[in-house]
Amino acid sequence: MKEFESVIGYKFKNKKLLEEALTHSSYANEHRDKGIKCNERLEFLGDAVLSIVVADYIFEHCPELPEGEMTKLRSVLVCEKALYKFGKEIKLGSFLRLSKGEKNGGGADRPSIVSDAFEAVIAAIYLDGGIEPARKHILRFVAPEIKSNHKKPFKDYKTTLQEIVQKNPGERIQYHMVSESGPDHDKHFVFEVHLNSNVIGKGGGRSKKEAEQNAAREALELMGY
């Protein structure tokens, strides 16, 4: 555990939390008579902490992204594939307590086990030291990924659609609001994009701009772009 603390750069006050985070259910079941806890409950909490930290970081550092794009970016960063990659970076699998059968079966390198343990470690840090050390630990992995995924500016679907249509003289793009609903603090707009008089896309959003972008995006997808 000391070696793992060195790897993640955090020293636990309550070592039991780290021990629990690194304990797979197979090990706990194998040693049921000793009352050992597995990391499943911590995994549940870690998932929530991870989600709020990632959402907060995206909200602060990607101000031009609409809700839909923020949601997609977050989902890429909190999925099993991403967490497995993060876990591999710190050789998390080699620190896990697994049953003999699970260990011999390659459990230490199984994506589901490693990604779940990664979330459990987040929860352990959160319970031991609060949100700030948990945030620091998460952003060590997530911040570079956000910058990597965010190298290109927000895709302006309206401009892209306009550029394509302009190649054909006489073609005209127009956006029409179909509906507006919800209270002032939580509006939802739906727009259609028309090519001449034909509807070629439809999209919704919390602002007129976002709804238009989503309508243009659907049109591009239907056109094969």
In short:
The protein is 58% helix and 11% strand. A hairpin with a 6-residue loop joins strand 1 and strand 2. The longest helix is centred in the first third of the chain and has 22 residues.
Question: How does this structure look, described?
Answer:
With 225 residues, the protein is mainly α. 58% of the residues lie in helices and 11% in strands. The chain has helices spanning 2-8, 15-21, 25-30, 40-61, 67-78, 80-89, 100-104, 111-129, 131-149, 157-165, 208-222, and strands spanning 173-181, 188-195, 198-205. It has a three-stranded antiparallel sheet with strand order 1-2-3, covered by helices on one side. It starts with a helix and ends with a helix.
List the defining traits of the structure above.
225 residues, mainly alpha, 3-stranded antiparallel β-sheet
Radius of gyration: 23 Å
The biggest beta sheet, please? 3 strands, antiparallel
Question: Portion of residues in helices?
Answer: 55-70%
Tally of helical runs: 11
Q: Element order, helices and strands?
A: HHHHHHHHHHEEEH
- What strand order characterises the main sheet? 1-2-3
Topology:
Layout: H1 2-8, H2 15-21, H3 25-30, H4 40-61, H5 67-78, H6 80-89, H7 100-104, H8 111-129, H9 131-149, H10 157-165, E1 173-181, E2 188-195, E3 198-205, H11 208-222
Helix pairs in contact: 2-8, 4-5, 4-8, 4-9, 6-8, 8-9, 10-11
